[in-house]
Amino acid sequence: MLISKGSFAIALASIAVAISCYGAFFKSAPLVAHQLDTEILQQSVKDLPKNSHDSPPSITELHNKISALQRQVANLNLQNPTANKVQNTDEFKELVLAVLVEKEQEEVAKMREENPLYGFYADLPQDYELRIKSEPEYAKKVTAQLREQILNPNLADIDRLAALSQLQMNMYILNKSKMPEYDFEVVDNILDLAENSTDDKFKIQAIEVTTQSPVLDYRLAERFTSLLKQDSNDYIRRLAGQGLLAQYYQAQDSQNEYSKQIAQHILSLYQNTSDSTVKSVLNDMMGNESLLEEMRKHTEG
Fold first, then answer.
1. What highest taxon heads this organism's lineage (predicted)?
2. Sequence spans of domains, the chain
3. Would you call 65 exposed, middle or buried from its count of C-beta atoms within 10 A (0-12, 13-18, 19+)?
4. Where does the chain have alpha helices with state H?
């Protein structure tokens, strides 16, 4: 049975009086505002009628409820007679700011929990990108520190990987394709962490970052080849194939000799493998026969 209009109006009045209780008390006890909100407002709302088959409360019951709440307002006004005359906006602002700070901290903690690799974003100063671009000494100092963190065996694996992600981010911020601090030793250390890790999620993230490395080195090609041939995870094998082809593509612009060497390596792997997964991955990465033909020309020329 639906509640009548009269009963509903009185119910709303009941809630309004409850809010008045809250406002009357807020000035004298801001620290317990949330508790009062919970205790008074929920007390007022919990017995209100619902759109169900339950019998609605009588008009007399609702009147009694309003009278009880009015007495609470009167008692609170006696305790704090100026509450309705003075509104302490500073306290209210402080409360709102405290709630916002708490919310931000919760979001940062959630981000760290869901993806620890990118938790470092929350720790960066707001002007970080601008300082990296405009202050060479600052950028140099940060880059050197990141390299030290990556190579530090005493740090947690995820922190070392996060340092590489930040180093890579700095390279992009500066619009560079290479950095002296971002070298084979750095990438090799992260690949070691990946191969020795029992955490598949970490392993995948680590290899994803290394496949985007600007470092051109035949030793990396060999490591990617080993992962492509031997890893038990199909996605990691595809990542390794991607890293191998990335070595070839990047070599086109800068190192003719290495371009020839990596082309020979990929062709040999493609033509001589008996592993259908390896061949399938390479086919997917290359896309069509034209790239194979291009590699053959590199090996001949």
1. Bacteria
2. 5-89, 116-212, 216-301
3. buried
4. 5-26, 33-36, 42-45, 59-79, 89-114, 128-134, 136-151, 157-173, 184-196, 200-211, 218-230, 234-254, 256-272, 276-286, 289-300
Cβ–Cβ < 8 Å for 163, 149: yes
pTM score, whole prediction: 0.62
Residues whose CB is less than 8 angstroms from the CB of residue 35 and which lie 6 or more positions away in sequence, other chains included: none
For residue 13 the two structure tokens come to 């009045």
* Start-to-end C-alpha separation, the chain: 89
Non-local (6+) Cβ contacts of 152 within 8 A are: 160
Task: Please write the tens of the pLDDT for every residue from 223-277.
Answer: 999 999 999 999 999 999 999 999 998 888 766 788 889 989 999 999 898 998 9
Rounded to 5°, angle at Cα 193 from 190 and 198: 145
Mean pLDDT over each residue of the chain, to the nearest integer? 77
Q: Which amino acid is at 187?
A: V
Q: Which amino acid is at 46?
A: K
Q: Please give the angle made by the CA atoms of 90, 96 and 99, to the nearest 5 degrees.
A: 140
What's the distance, CA 2 to chain centroid?
47
Residue in 122, 170, 118, 165 with CA at minimum distance from that of residue 143: 170
Other CB atoms within 10 A of residue 57 CB: 17
Work out the number of other CB atoms within 10 angstroms of the CB of residue 257.
8
The answer to whether the CB of 228 falls within 8 A of the CB of 241 is yes
The two structure tokens encoding residue 130? 């601008």
